[in-house]
Each structure stands twice: as C-alpha cells, then as structure tokens.
Amino acid sequence: MLQKHVFGWRSQAGRHMDLEAFVATKEVVSDSEQIASDTASAWDSLLQEISHRPKRATERKQDRAKRTEQQILHAALRVFARDGISRSRIADIAAEAGISTSTLYEYYKSKEDLAYDVPLSHLAEFFESYHANAASRTSARERLLLYLVMSADYAREHAEWARLLYLEIWPSVFVSDTELRHSIDDFTRVILFLVKEGVAEGWVSPERSPYETVAVLIGGVNQLIITWLLYRKPKNLTRAGTEMAERLIAMLENEVSR
Amino acid sequence: MLQKHVFGWRSQAGRHMDLEAFVATKEVVSDSEQIASDTASAWDSLLQEISHRPKRATERKQDRAKRTEQQILHAALRVFARDGISRSRIADIAAEAGISTSTLYEYYKSKEDLAYDVPLSHLAEFFESYHANAASRTSARERLLLYLVMSADYAREHAEWARLLYLEIWPSVFVSDTELRHSIDDFTRVILFLVKEGVAEGWVSPERSPYETVAVLIGGVNQLIITWLLYRKPKNLTRAGTEMAERLIAMLENEVSR
DNA sequence: CAATTATCCGATAAATCGTCGATTTTACAA
DNA sequence: TTGTAAAATCGACGATTTATCGGATAATTG
C-alpha cells in the first residue's frame, strides 16, 4: 500500500513539453510564417499535454473492476454533491455504487483520496471538448474567449461536478501534491499561455503582469460560476458567461488602445 | 438543544436598514445637497449594520467562561488553519485551548458549528477597521478603492484567518442559513452599494449589470488572495492588491470614457 | 482444468464525534 | 463572610464513522 505512494503515483509523463517547446522556439528562423507555426505547435503541445495527463497509476485488470470503478466515481459524485464531502459517508457511497464498504477501500485508500479523484475525469473531458472546439479558432483572442465561455457553460451542464470542484475542492490547500492540483494548474496555464500570446498579438497590455491579468480573468468567471452555484443567479449562466468573457476581454483591449 | 435552532439563533436584529434607507431616499427633496446627505446616511447605515451584526445568541455569564470562549476560538483558528477543518480533531482544539473535549461541546454543538463561528469576529473587525478608515473618503470611487485594497491587506495580516475563510469556508454551500453567510453577503453588499454609487457618480457604466461588475471586482481580488495563500505569490500582497484594485477601477472607468 | 491472480465482502478494529451525570467553581444576595 | 443557586467543567461512556484484515468467490492464464 505504501508502494503506491513511492512510485506509480503522480506520473511525470508528459512533463517534457516545456523543454520541447523551448527548443522549438529557440530555432533560428527568419520568416514570420515559421514563427507562427512554432507558436501553433507550442499551443498544440500544451493542449495535448493537459488532455493526456494520466489519471490513475493503478489500472484495473478486469472489466468488472473497471465498471466498479466507474460506479464508485459516479456514486461519489452524486453523494458528495448532495451532502458535501465532509458530511458524506463512505458507506452511503458504497451502497449507492452497489458494493460493500470494504470493496470501496480496495479502490481508494480514504475518503479524501476519493474526493480528489472524482473531479478529474470531467476536467479531462472539458479539456478534450475545448481542444476540439478550439481547432477552428486561430487567434489567441478567439481562443481565450472560447475558453472562458466554455468553462462557464461546462459548469452549467455538469452542475454536480461544478459544485464539488468550485465550492469544495478548487481552493483547498490540501489538494497540493495531488494529480488534481496539476489539472487545476493546467487550467490556469492555458489562460496564462493565451494572455502571453495576447501580448504578442498586441491586444493585451505588456505593461501588466500576465499573472495579474490571469487573476482578473479567472477570478471574474469563477466568481460568476460560484454565485450561480450558490444562488442560481444569474438565471442564464451561459449568456452571463458569454457577456462576462466578452467584457473582460474588451477591458483588456481598452487598456492598450488609449 | 433543539430550542437553540428554533429561536435565539441567527437574530434578525438590524434587518430593518433596507426599509429605513428606502424611506429616506424616497423623501421628496429638491436640491442636490439634500440628496448627497441622504446618500451619505444610507452609506453610514449600511456600515453601521454590517459592523453590528450580532455574533452569538448565547451570551456567557461568567468571566471565566468568556475567557474560555476566546481560548476556544483562538485554538480553533490555529488548528483549523494548520490541519484544515476536515482533518482537525475536536480533541486537539480542546487540548490547545486547555479544556476538556466535553467542555468544548458546551460551547459549540459540533465541529461545523465551531468552524463557521471562527471567522466571524475577524470579519467584524475588518468592517470596523474599514469603517474607521473610510470616514475620510468622500467619493464612492475612493471608498471602493480603499475597500478592495484593505481586504487584500487584511488577508495578509491575518493569514491563518484568511486561509480558513477564503480556502475552506467562503464558497461552501453549507454555510447557508448561517450567521457567517450573512456576514459574507454583507461583504459583497458593500461593493454592490459602491458600484451603484459609481454609476451615479458617472465613472461606472450604467449599461452593465451591477452584479456582474461586483463579480469582476470581488473575483479579481479574491483570486489574487487565494493565489497568495496557496503559493505565497505574489511576494508582496499589499502592493499587488493595490495594483489590482487600481487596475480594476481604471478598467471600469475605461468602459464609460470612450 | 488446475493454478494463479484479481476482486469482493463480512467481521471487526481504530478513531473520532458527541452525550450525560456528577463535581467544582462562580456570582451574588443576605 | 457565608450560603446557595446557577454556571461551568470534566471523566466516563455510548454512538457513529472510518479503515483493516483474512478468507471466499470470480476471472484469467497456461
């Protein structure tokens, strides 16, 4: 059981992207076509990396077990979203999944462990969904707009999951050193990347710290989502998310064009 | 024990402010002096209300007990901030406070109950501190700037408390129907009030939903604070908070002056 | 089909929460 | 000061929940 911690846990696969991108952009190039292509490839690598981050170290051998794992995750999401993590009982989740309590412990070593694994699959799905939709967008501005709009809309579509992630897990300190933390960090890395591209494209002020700009963007959208999750206001989250995203980007543009 | 829930709990005192403010501003007035005075009084009433929101229904009779209550709150803050709420043990908190576990239950009926009471006193202190500092500011713009800057700075000064509030409690759904939820709502009400004043003063766009504007402001500042709590970046939170606040307000101003 | 491994579960240990009655301390009036 | 009722404290104990372990059952492999 301890072995799980020592290795196999939190694989480092896919961590080489930064180096590759670094090498790629350091190549001596002369025409802007080449540069654009490099940037594009860095963008693809980033998306590739974040959607392929490995989920679990231990892989189940039997089909039945894979089904059980899915049932546990599904049941846990339902129960956690209904009762909140701290009020939820492992026994309830196991019952909901149609297995015994001890079987659940065969899959997850603690309630905390389970809670941190539940949001992962949806997060990966979001990244994949974004990856598909972003293919047609060429400018960083369009990509960023889509990203912000989609994150609000995804929360609306998967309210149980969003409730768990945004209201209970996202800010928690104790997610550190967790696969989930890496995925959450990935979420912000995408925005950071696009903001830096925005500077290159000339519609984001180079005078401002990109990190501060990221905080403004994520903060605004998340605050909107959290308010919706808590009070179901605004009624139409999709539209509010679009308006918020467009407004935030327009605000950034205003900073340079004056 | 159930009685505690039925009454005495979550006092409604101070809930009449809205009505009073409504009546005041509906008075027929002709000159702008009078309007300004009314607005000022509404502002004072708001600050008055939020800093005097009653803390607990049950008041301790003995000096020793009041000291004990303080010791519990102090110990709980330390332990919660160190271990996180869910990992903290009531026994540890009691030990840290120098009392027995059963005595602690004499004061708080559950760990959850305790966790939701801990942030209250600091929140009240923040409001009082702001109230004092805001006295010299006359425009809504200055008051809002001060509010945002002070909230970031207060988090820096009281990092343990901020860690508890921002990373564990603020977004939690289960704070609903709690005295704490009212205080957190108060926090946003102040900003909402100032945003609406900003529209009247002409530097906030009337085309935008005030609620959306509030989300942008709170979201940006909170995201900054959360990032600092998690990663201690940016190093200098006070300066970063000031920059963030000034930037956000400038962004709002940009929306109208073009 | 036998051997091996993976999965599942009932029984039970361990940890933590929360309660109760008895005891001590405090506030205060006489 | 002292008696007394109320307030506060605590140790012992019950209840709930988390987590473990060894064996039974099912799947896989050769």
Q: Could you explain how this protein is built, in words?
A:
In chain A, helix 4 (63-83) crosses helix 5 and helix 4 packs across helix 7. The first copy, chain A, is globular, with a radius of gyration of 20 Å. Chain A is mostly helical. Chain A is built from 12 helices and no strands. Chain A has helices at 3-6, 17-26, 32-51, 63-83, 90-97, 101-107, 111-134, 140-157, 159-169, 179-201, 210-231, 237-256. Chain A folds into 2 domains: 3-54 and 110-256, Tetracycline Repressor, domain 2, CATH 1.10.357; 59-109, Arc Repressor Mutant, subunit A (Orthogonal Bundle), CATH 1.10.10.60. Chains A and B meet through helix 9, helix 11 and helix 12 of A and helix 9, helix 11 and helix 12 of B.
CATH fold title of the largest domain in chain A? Tetracycline Repressor, domain 2
Binned strand content of chain A = under 5%
Largest interface: chains, residues each: A-B, 44 and 44 residues
Fraction of residues in helix of chain A: over 70%
Uncertain residue segments of chain A: 1-30
CATH superfamily of the largest domain in chain A: Tetracycline Repressor, domain 2
Average pLDDT reading of chain A: 85
Oligomer: homodimer
Discrete helix count of chain A? 12
CATH class of the largest domain in chain A: Mainly Alpha
Taken together, the total number of domains of chain A comes to 2
Shape of chain A: globular
Topology order of chain A in helix (H) and strand (E) letters? HHHHHHHHHHHH
Distance between the termini of chain A: 60 Å
The major β-sheet of chain A equals: none
- What is the CA-atom radius of gyration of chain A, in angstroms? 20 Å
| Coarse structural class of chain A | mainly alpha
